[in-house]
Amino acid sequence: MKLEDHKLLAETGPGTAMGNLLRRYWTAALLASELEAGGSPVRVRLMGEDLVAIRNTEGKVGLFAERCAHRGASLYFAKNENCKLRCLYHGWQYDLDGTCVDQPNEPPASQFKDKVKQTAYPCIERNGVVWAYMGPADKKPALPDIEWLTVPASHVYVSKRLQHCHWTQGMEGDLDSSHLSILHNDLLKQRAANPRNRSAVWAMREQHPEIKTQVMSSGLLMAARREAEEDTYYWRVNQWFVPGYTNWPIPGDNPQAGHAWVPIDDEWCWVFTFSWHPARPLRDEEVAMMRKGSDIHAPVDPVTFMPTQNVTNDYAGPNAAPVAQPWMGVTALQAQDIAMTESMGPLYDRTQENLVASDLIVAQTRHRLVIAARALEKGVEPQGLDAEAYRLRPLATELPRDVTAWREAVADIMDARPETFKVSV
Ligand code: FES
Ligand SMILES: [Fe+2]
């Protein structure tokens, strides 16, 4: 990567080109369960901005800049009362939209409060997540129709974890299918040992699948084709949605999987992991397993959201048995991905990489973001602001070998409506 592109992709703070682009989309800010009506304000850092979230006494959510508009005291210490937030220092009081409604240290006749506005961002709560819009007010799009946002809440489980690396560094793990049968080889082998897991057998057999991509206004379709039976191919289709969402299929009548990658700043990110079933509510036992920590829901500290398998224990977990070499302890699926992407350092210098053909999608998505950020600086509106363009689900299926128009062949199952769901192989 050229240095100027690397820097542009890296910086997400206010006023940066990439920061401006990302702020034109909705951002997953925090879990809805982190906020209690009338309860404690919660600190949230997004794209280098320190913020404070509350749920007011009516249950509505507000997201404010942390520093009070008066003289900058932290609103983390503010009082969440009577549906508003009151700074502890001099008592200035703010509505959820940042309107200053009271200034007790001003004479009653003063109208100064009408001139003051606390930075506050609109929020929508949907399927377990509080979404924030941090861009210009007149450009606010609809929430994207990603399937985990459009199905009923009973069909979705979401968890959150903290990751010490640039948000794209983490996300690129989801876009790089060549590490599957290498980094996750042992896990895949375990699955392939059961001959009923036919797709695991196929994935093990072919380490260089043929990769096809198709550009969409809302992102990229990625299809990996492998030999299946004598006259069939195994097709695995994932989506990358702008700016930071990935979806991948899970075989059987199981919940599907998706990530939202959110910059905290340029060295840390939040990872929201979604499990959703397109056609039915999640079963109690499924949710119980995800809560404990499953393949894709990393077990985390409930306060900091730091995964328990982390850099301090070589990603093996706090009570792991000693191993002969560090890699042997990194056995959990998410821990493997986290270990690899964090071990690059918080912001790897992309001018130092040596990309090969299997990094094509990684390169394409970076390029797409860089181009869009530069275009926005010149006044060209970003793509993917149309909610309906996100109505696609991941899938894995077996198709006759003579099918070449794969996109058309899977269009029905990929169309994210409950009646079209077909169990993945
Ligand atoms: S600093 Fe908040 S009211 Fe003075
Ligand atoms: Fe992985």
Secondary-structure element sequence? HHEEEEEEEEEEEHEHHHHEEEEEEHHHEH
Main sheet: strands, sense, barrel: 8 strands, antiparallel
Q: State the name of the first-level CATH class of the largest domain.
A: Alpha Beta
Shape: globular
Point out poorly predicted stretches.
none
Strand % is 15-25%
Mean pLDDT: 96
Q: How many strands appear in the DSSP assignment?
A: 19
**Protein structure class:** alpha+beta
Helix content: 10-25%
**What compounds sit in this structure?**
FE2/S2 (inorganic) cluster, fe (ii) ion
- What is the rounded distance between the termini? 37 Å
Q: What is the CATH fold-level name of the largest domain?
A: Naphthalene 1,2-dioxygenase Alpha Subunit, Chain A, domain 1
Radius of gyration: 23 Å
What's the domain count? Answer: 2
Care to describe what's here?
By secondary structure, this protein is α+β, with helices and mostly antiparallel strands. It is 22% helix and 25% strand. It has helices at residues 3-10, 17-22, 147-150, 167-174, 180-183, 185-192, 198-205, 284-292, 333-342, 360-377, 406-414, and strands spanning 26-31, 42-46, 49-55, 61-65, 79-81, 84-86, 93-94, 100-102, 120-121, 123-126, 129-133, 156-163, 210-216, 219-227, 232-241, 245-248, 256-263, 269-276, 395-400. Strands 12, 13, 14, 15, 16, 17, 18 and 19 form an 8-stranded antiparallel beta sheet that branches. Strands 2-3-4-9 form a 4-stranded antiparallel beta sheet, with no helix packed on it. The mean pLDDT is 96. FE2/S2 (inorganic) cluster binds at residues 68, 70-73, 87, 89-92.
